[in-house]
Amino acid sequence: MSILRRKTRTCTIGTLKLGSEHPVAIQTMTMGKTENVAAVVAEIKTVEDAGCDLVRVAVPNFDAAKAIPLIKEKIKIPLVADIHFDPRLAIAALDYGADKIRINPGNFFDRSYLEKVILLAKKKNAALRIGVNAGSLEKDLWAKYGAPTPDALVESALRWVKFVEDLGFGNFVVSLKSSRVPTMIEAYQKFATAQSAGSLPPPPLHLGVTEAGPTLPGAIKSAVGIGTLLSQGIGDTIRVSIVDNIAKEVEVCREILKSLGLYSKEPDIVACPTCGRIEIDLEKMVEEVSVALKHLKKSIRVSVMGCVVNAVGEAKESDFAIAGGRKAGALYYKGELYKANVPEAELVPELLKLINKFPEQQDLLFVSRIK
Asked: Which sign, positive or negative, has the C-alpha torsion 154, 156, 159, 163?
């Protein structure tokens, strides 16, 4: 079943377009000091060809703002400047060429400066992210709701959307993040419903569970929160916030999108979890197939199954498949048996030959071979 995405306007960020008419974009944020240009560029290079569509850098001072053009000239994806508290830094980042500014308006205490930021972004054809979270929730909303509840986050977001749109600016996205997954889900759902009632197409949504935590629990929280919303058609760009390197963040983002059929730039590898029935070295095979197809930029479904319980059924739903048996197995192509009784040691090499064989797969010829 395909996902019907919530209709939005398009937000343009450098060469990237966000919104319901475009693929869900993956983004991350660098870990190093922005003014350390060489290190930040090296960090960005680890994700540019791994599916990352835009990258954010922290701008806590003017030295970081000055580094923006030096970084931009060495990377291929749009650059976002992350600004808090001081709108002068946002103005500097725009002057230095940031493609997009991330701000949480609730922690900007001078609205006249905030207006200057928005009008300058409009003049420079830059984009904005209007962010709302517990750390930036306005004092009157804390008093009204007693906590950063979903309703508090939604009221804040709607307030700032109106503020920005009243200034004639529409090239922005919105985020309503929380470290609590149920709060995050409900906030985005309610905001999406409220915005859909308007006469104009609503802005795109940036999804994320903020401060998600260490790699495994953070990835799970993000998958549940982001995945739930995406499955409902809500969300146009995603960031996974975990305590790990940015390549791992991008990898988790890809897997979330792949699980919902929203990512078409690499294979989807299906494998059984192993059990006492298996009589082949399935773990080794899955690893070999994963490595061989790692750099393949094509959406194909490949299943590597260990025994007859689910192997044939899964093979019938895959483009290419291994169905394991007793120290041997069978190969399937497009759900049909292609070759039976293949010795265990030949299963992965024969699978890779099969992937490379068919005319519609000729762009896969660089797939590495297992020796």
From this structure: negative
Residues pairing with 127 in the sheet: 100
pTM above 0.85, yes or no: yes
Kindly list the averaged pLDDT for each block of 10 residues, start to end, along the chain of length 371.
Answer: 90 97 97 97 94 97 98 98 94 98 90 93 97 92 96 97 95 96 97 80 96 91 98 98 94 95 90 88 94 86 88 87 92 93 96 81 45 37
Helix (H) or strand (E) holding 13: strand 11-13
DSSP 3-state percent helix, strand, coil across the chain (nearest 5): 40, 20, 35
Residue spans of the domains in the chain: they are 11-259, 268-364
Token pair in block for residue 26: 């993956």
Q: For 3-16, b where at least 16 C-beta lie within 10 A, e where not — what string? A: eebbebbbbbbbeb
CATH class of 11-259: alpha beta
Q: Cα separation of 26 and 286, whole Å?
A: 26
d(CA 271, CA 60): 45
Helices (H), 14-67: 37-48, 62-66
**Contacts of residue 207, Cβ cutoff 8 Å, sequence gap at least 6:** 175, 188, 225, 226, 229, 230, 234, 235, 237, 238, 239
The CATH code belonging to domain 268-364 is 3.30.413.10
CA distance 150 to 177: 10
Read off the pLDDT of residues 50-90 as tens digits, 9 standing for 90 and up. 899 999 999 999 999 999 999 999 999 999 999 999 999 99
Rounded to whole angstroms, the Cα distance separating 240 from 221 reads 9
